[in-house]
């Protein structure tokens, strides 16, 4: 279900006459620098279109000046759009009056900024209650909701302390808890972790992913850090000069960059920490134990020139493996394939990273089975050692090329 939909959204900063000339120059593919020099107007966002699904972490990524922070402020109308539409649950908030917009901001969305914005003379609990307090929520209810948000963020123990008693990472967790205490449907996060030390930042990314698993909010997350985007984003929109260059999953953007800009932007990423089992798996050569006997299994091995088959049932649920020796023994002893089934096969989920797969396959005598855990371990394919080594080698080769350039 689509939660947020943005259509033809444009923001140009400047006088109306300047905006019209600037719009025409954008259409003519002029650069932001040329437009500023000629018109005095600045293109913040131009003709942006995207949608965000309910419960999705949608990352908007780009370098400084790309328009990403302007875009998130257009979504909640901190900045007024020049043109275009912004729909939340089908309601066009670009056309709401001030009172209607205030209600949407109070009940539909909350924002978490880079600077923590905590009140130094309020306790952690009082800081977390603040949004509910200004909405007029009764003290007992707002305390309960704030405590629940702090508990979800692992901060309830610190509720009576003050911001200066907490580390930067913990302060940002309070900022996140404060936003969640309002129970918003949409969470807007503008460079929320960029002021933190790298180690703390990574911990916050992990916590956001874990927290999202509990609260399942719709999150629009702004960052300039590609690795952060790849780590937390379900999908990513990459911006340049106020326009979206590409929207897709991290894997889609890495494997099929839309243009040279995207290709250059992502070229220094360690793909082994982004690409998954699904990207490198190959079709499994299988035997269906509900139907096949030893003769069929041996015939398939001969025709496919392999010495082992992956055993499944009619529903393609993984059962194990059958080797040529085992099938021959079953034929000799008039047994079924179930009698000689080897259930010792390592399984991995389709979204396991290549960097995590390598230690598993290094000593494995068989390929790894890629399964869909949400569908009764249905077999999707197998990962062979050669595919992993090839993927790791490609990453190494790319890094060496970049080092030599």
Automatic annotation (TrEMBL):
Q: Which CDD domains match?
A: ABC_Pro_Gly_Betaine (cd03294)
What are the subcellular locations of this protein?
Answer: Cell inner membrane
Coiled coil feature spans? none
Keywords from the UniProt entry: Amino-acid transport, ATP-binding, CBS domain, Cell inner membrane, Cell membrane, Membrane, Nucleotide-binding, Transport
- Per UniProt, residues of the CBS domain are 341-398
Q: What is its EC number?
A: 7.6.2.9
Q: Which domain of life is it from?
A: Bacteria
Give the enzyme's main class according to its UniProt record, as a single word. translocase
Is the Cell membrane keyword given for this protein? yes
For whether the record's keyword set contains Lipid biosynthesis, the answer is no
Write down the membrane topology.
Peripheral membrane protein
> According to its UniProt record, which reaction does this protein catalyse?
a quaternary ammonium(out) + ATP + H2O = a quaternary ammonium(in) + ADP + phosphate + H(+)
The UniProt record lists the ABC transporter domain at 30-266
Looking up Pfam families in the UniProt record yields: ABC_tran, CBS
The UniProt GO MF terms for this protein read:
ATP binding
The similarity annotation says: Belongs to the ABC transporter superfamily.
Q: How does it assemble?
A: The complex is probably composed of two ATP-binding proteins, two transmembrane proteins and a solute-binding protein.
Name this polypeptide is given: Quaternary amine transport ATP-binding protein
